[in-house]
Amino acid sequence: IASAGGFQQHTLKPAQLRPTQRALTRRAFLSEAFRYLDTPYGWGDEGGGRDCSRLALDVLETFGLRVPRTSGEQSHAGSYTVSVPEAASATERLSLLDEAAKRGVVLVHLPGHIMIYLGRDRQGVPRVLHSLAEYLAPCAGGGETLFEVNRVRVTGLELGAGTSRRSFLERIANLTVFGKPPGYALLALTDFRKAAAPPVLDPKICRDSTDVALFRSPREPHTAAPLRVIAATTEDTRPAQLWLVDPDGTLLSPEVHELGVGPFTRWAEIATPQAGRWTALVADGERVLACERFHVAQRSASSPREASAAREPEAPAWTSQWRWERDTEHLYAGFVEQLFSYPLEDTSTFDGLHQLLSNPERNLLYDHMGLGEDTRIALKPDCADLPYMLRAYFAWKLSLPFGFRQCSRGKPSVAPRCGELKSNEFPITQSDEVAAFGEFVRRTVGSAVHSASGRTLPEDTETDLYPVALNRRALRPGAVFADPYGHVIVVAKWVPQGVAGEGMLLGADAQPDASVGRRRFWQGNFLFTPDTQEVGAGFKAFRPVGIDPEAKRMRALDNTQLQNSEHFPDYSGEQYAITKDEFYARMDELIYPRAVAVGDSLRRLVDALDEQATRRISAIDTGEAFVRSTRATMDMPEGHDIFETQGPWEDFATPSRDMRLLIAIDTVRAFPGRVQSQPERYGIAREQLAGSIATLEDSLRQMLSERRFEYTRSDDSKQSLSLADVIDRVEALELAYNPNDCVERRWGAPVDSAEAATCKRTAPAAQHARMSKYRDWFRTRARPPR
Prior knowledge:
This protein is of the alpha+beta class. Helix content is 26%, strand content 21%. The protein contains 20 helices and 30 strands. It has a seven-stranded antiparallel β-sheet, with helices on both faces. Strands 18-25-24-23-22-26-21 form a seven-stranded antiparallel β-sheet. A hairpin with a 2-residue loop joins strand 4 and strand 5. The termini are far apart. The model has no long low-confidence stretch (mean pLDDT 92).
């Protein structure tokens, strides 16, 4: 120690020592960066000054972070990089900056330059600190002026606006983040750095956890079947990677398929695995998050015939060997998502659930039991059966417990109620394991469950499903949406929000003909009411079941046990404490977590309206062809049955489709008001709101007038309509679903107009009287409960 009397030597105890490396906090980082304010610019390492990349290097080095020397390399040196597409609007660019800043320290890169992002000042203006040589500014009379700075300065991102170089904001190419994982708002645009190879592990410390869990399939791996290794995690653990070590000790980095935006699932496949001891790892260098060792046999332990023959008649459908916990719930979410993970533009439907399960590219658990089971099962669910069949199938494959109840259907002023819990312990008279499962799920479960099984009241604890909060943790793939009117949809996939693209929530549902497909979340597909007098609609999760060790019987967790649960989505009545509009606004925030450009949002809404209108054309044409061919008046059901019945009315009338069209019209018309009430969701400053709303309303009118389609009139001539025409006819469209009426009336043609002159057929007066009686359902956009 240096003192006035000279140097002195002291021996310090270890407890007196503190590490010299500083923790990377936002305050410490910015304090360090501001030490260089107003220091000179220097090209390269000359003259004692710093160029932009040297400034970033020096600041980060203080915290023990070694980054490359050039700005281009630094732009990919953080925890991850967020790409900013060239086509991104100013609103989108600023929203990406704001979201990145929530996660840690951000470097802003544009070609040839890098800056330190400081955040927004008190006036809400984004600011950066950088070593700046020069910038251009436009001249009032034309031309440009070059300003030389040659200093470390704090500036805005508007510098250069209106010049040939463009503003800093317009030129941003990517954001480099040092900090927490990107989260849902940035995930679609994130590139993670490459993971470092893991070390050789001591076998004694090879383990995983319910937060970072490793699974393998088939359950008894052997060389004659592909080996699939799956990592299911609560949080996004990247850049940590899924690695495999083969029996020779070779570290493999197989192609990894990424699923999920919370929980997160990754899987890799080895087509022909080598016999011997394998190791699976989730790791980034020395950071090993999970490890599992398992054996791959030279051949299968038994043939499918031998394995199935071992089952005793009257045995349970299957025996539960494991229990539902956080890891199995995560894996279930990944299983459901993979099943429905095909291209977004693919609108295919499948003739039964078994068409998906029998596809090894879609089914993570294909032939998991080694019985050839997935080629022997035929599952044809309706919408109410689909979630139960998915859950039962997964539970069967992993030897997990499965429970269900038989419920009443409810009636006016009386909600559905359910009976005692039944389970996979139910005895099945089949000597074959696969046949036993098929009989159980099709007959035992299929005969008990129906659409009302998902519409039980929120506080009811004797149910198969319980309501959850409106957050991404709860609304994972496999969650169930029950609407008030009898339709059931399974959450299938979240598509993260991109730039000038769409975030999406996709659901899977089945129709009465057993076809299975996907549909996108929007107000017309996911009908909701917070009213719980007769039904409990909304998003729900399967109530976990397990063996009660004391009573030695199956039991389900009640609502109290599901509050603040460690392993399962929390029980929550949130959906019923808000209005219907607030419900859809909350879902909109989950699908689009960043501010969205108002023009993109408007286009999406108009696209949805256009889709509803144009799809209605073929539905009406099909009904018209049937009526013309039979030359008979179609019977019209009474009450709720106009929406759901059997026969020609079910096939050719359009009350449900027209209800969705009316909801789409309302959503488009209400959009300017939504922007006015939530301008921050669209990146609009309050002082600019009046002008923005006027511009939006003009754009909406123009867009609706330009979107046109044609329908075929009664005399086979073509009639052109715009979406503006459709909106003007909204009242007529509340009475336009009856196929006994002429086509012109079904498109709301004004009485005595030239368009209506070709109408040659009307429905009976008694049917029109009934339609007038039911009109309030369409005027209020609320179907009666079933």
